[in-house]
Specification:
By secondary structure, this protein is α/β, with parallel strands linked by helices. Helices cover 45% and strands 17% of the residues. The longest helix has 24 residues.
Length: 345
């Protein structure tokens, strides 16, 4: 059972002061967070790609590379790379370079993206949303498989027997499929035999169990061994020494972000009642003291079959020292308890 952190490197206004941290300062903080995650024994750290003012990470590979030479064992992944609006050649080159710097700890988490700002920015048509991802994933996997590539598609110039360099330390370089719970994306990952990451950020996490079964069924039908495939979850959460202290610290920035995104997407108002309901054992928020969070992760493992858990923290802007403390508690208190319990299953 792997346990780690994911972040979108958010730069929303501080709910108490109204001030907004600069992109540069937040990026430097995240590098410190990755280094600490490595020191406290966490397995993986993911940085998500976005192209808007309130998220500072438009290039996760560069941020991860800044931390790579300061860390020893933690795996470093995008969370996600918006492959539909990127060039698979450049994606592979960036993460192969990260793999070299980290000596074999890089991963790519490829997704279609729930945010769409990158499409007009890079000149892509949203009408091609699904087609772009399918085509670019095909090319990325071909580059991963072969040093010399011959490929032709609809949305990118053809490649005629050209090499793509550098080659990574890992062979193959891990490529995960990120999904918000779309059955088609789950089946795609299974058919390709690729590890799957589910964004479980609302509703009841146990509702994702049928999707995990669908994924494994698709993998088996395509000739892959389901027992060798990894399923991860990405879920919002926060840890403090005291359960209610954790909730009180995490709610304000979470509410700010959820209501801001809610206005953009037509969601209802996000209040404390919704937040507290999601903190229950069956809810999607992993907020509380170490024992509470560990219990929920174990529950997810037993009932959904997750083999990697990524705590997304912070949601919105929180004091750096609070985030660092949450990472410390995840590594020193939560992860050992989860690993011990899972080892006995």
């Amino acid at each position: 059972m792997e346990i780690g952190i994911s972040t979108f490197v958010e730069t929303t206004p501080d709910v108490n002061t109204g001030k907004t941290i600069s992109h540069a300062e937040r990026i430097r903080e995240v590098v410190e967070e990755i280094v600490l995650a490595d020191q406290v024994g966490l397995d993986v750290f993911g940085v998500g790609e976005h192209h808007r003012e309130d998220f500072a990470a438009s290039n996760p590979a560069v941020i991860l590379a800044a931390a790579a030479s300061q860390t020893k064992r933690i795996r470093l992944t995008s969370a996600v790379t918006v492959l539909s609006s990127d060039d698979p050649v450049r994606v592979f080159q960036e993460f192969a370079t990260l793999d070299a710097i980290s000596n074999g700890r890089a991963e790519i988490m490829a997704g279609r993206g729930s945010f769409i700002e990158s499409f007009p920015l890079f000149g892509y048509d949203l009408h091609d949303y699904n087609e772009l991802f399918d085509e670019k994933l095909e090319l990325l996997l071909q580059i991963r498989q072969s040093e010399k590539v011959t490929w032709q598609g609809k949305h990118r110039p053809a490649i005629r027997n050209l090499g793509v360099y550098p080659r990574p330390v890992q062979n193959p370089l891990p490529v995960w499929i990120g999904s918000g719970g779309n059955p088609e994306s789950v089946v795609r990952a299974g058919k390709l035999g690729l590890p799957l990451v589910l964004a479980i950020i609302g509703g009841r996490p146990l509702q994702f169990a049928p999707l995990v079964q669908l994924y494994k069924q698709a993998a088996a039908e395509a000739g892959h061994d389901p027992a060798k495939l990894t399923v991860a979850s990405h879920s919002h959460g926060f840890i403090a020494e005291d359960r209610e202290e954790a909730a009180d610290a995490f709610f304000p920035s979470t509410q700010l972000v959820m209501n801001k995104l809610g206005k953009e997407r037509g969601w209802g108002h996000y209040g404390r009642a919704s937040f507290d309901a999601a903190r229950s054992l069956e809810g999607a928020l992993y907020v509380g003291d170490p024992d509470t969070v560990a219990e929920k992760i174990i529950h997810l493992r037993k009932n959904v079959g997750i083999t990697r858990f990524m705590l997304h923290v912070p949601v919105g802007s929180m004091p750096h020292e609070q985030v660092m403390k949450a990472i410390e508690l995840l590594g020193t208190k939560v992860a050992p308890k989860v690993r011990e319990e899972v080892a006995g299953l």
